[in-house]
Amino acid sequence: MKIGELCNRDVTIAVKETSAEELAAIMRENHVGDVVITNEQGGVHKPVGIVTDRDLVIEVLAKEVPLKACTASDIMSDELAVIDEQQGIWETLQLMRDKGIRRLPVVNASGGLVGIISADDFTAFFAEQMQELVNLMNREQKREQHRRP
Predict the structure, then answer these.
(1) Integer Cα distance of 19 and 24 in angstroms
(2) Which pLDDT tens digit goes with each residue over 13-71?
(3) CA dihedral in degrees (76, 27, 44, 111; nearest 10)?
(4) What CATH number did the domain enclosing 113 receive?
(5) 70 Cβ neighbours under 8 A, 6+ residues apart
(6) C-beta separation of 137 from 43 below 8 A
(7) Number of structural domains, the chain?
C-alpha cells in the first residue's frame, strides 16, 4: 500500500510569519496537534517546517516567551522530513522511526504537500487490520463447529 492512500489529506497549514498565538488558535479551531508550515510556489504549497502542540508548550510556554513575539519560523522544526506519496507504509514507518518523529508531511513528485501521516494513523490502520484477522479466525472457528457431527 502506498502512503498516499493512507495519509490524511486534510492538512492544516500556515506560513513562517504566523505568530505562536495564531498557531495555537489554528490548532484549536481545527482540532489538530500540528500545523505544517509552507511556502507557496506557483500555486503549490511546499512544506518547509512543522509546528506541533508540543513545540508550543516546550519552546514558547515553558520558556515564557510572549506568544505574539514568536513566529512559526522561530519554533518550527529545523530539518523537515517528508515522504513521497508513492512510498510504501513500511518505508514511511522506517523513516519515522529513524528520525524519531510522530508526524510526517506527504508530498507529490513536485514536492507539493498532499497530506500528513501520523503515528496515530498507523495505530488505527493496524488495529483495523488486526480486527479483520480476528474476524477471519472467528468465522473459521464457526465453520469448523458447524461441520463437526
Answers:
(1) 9
(2) 999 999 999 999 999 999 999 999 999 999 999 999 999 999 999 999 999 999 889 99
(3) 50
(4) 3.10.580.10
(5) 19, 20, 59, 60
(6) no
(7) 1
